[in-house]
Design goal:
The termini are far apart. By secondary structure, the chain is mainly α. 56% of the residues lie in helices and 0% in strands. The longest helix is centred in the middle third of the chain and has 32 residues.
Length: 64
């Protein structure tokens, strides 16, 4: 009887549970990536005195 009055209730509940599960998975993945970056010992700084975007690639000294 409940399905007759609100046919999309079960689908909406399943979609909400899926979104919650996906959000937890995304948070865990992001935390793991941040942990790996922190453990690598590498520092990320803004490049100084280097042109990142130039008209032709041959004018750059390296690809970094």
């Amino acid at each position: 009887m409940g399905n007759l009055l609100n046919p999309g209730k079960a689908a909406a509940k399943a979609a909400e549970e899926q979104r919650a599960t996906q959000a937890v998975a995304n948070d865990r993945q992001l935390a793991e990536l941040r942990n790996q970056d922190a453990n690598s010992g590498a520092t990320r700084r803004n490049p100084r005195g280097r042109r990142l975007f130039v008209g032709d690639a041959a004018s750059k000294s390296d690809l970094s």
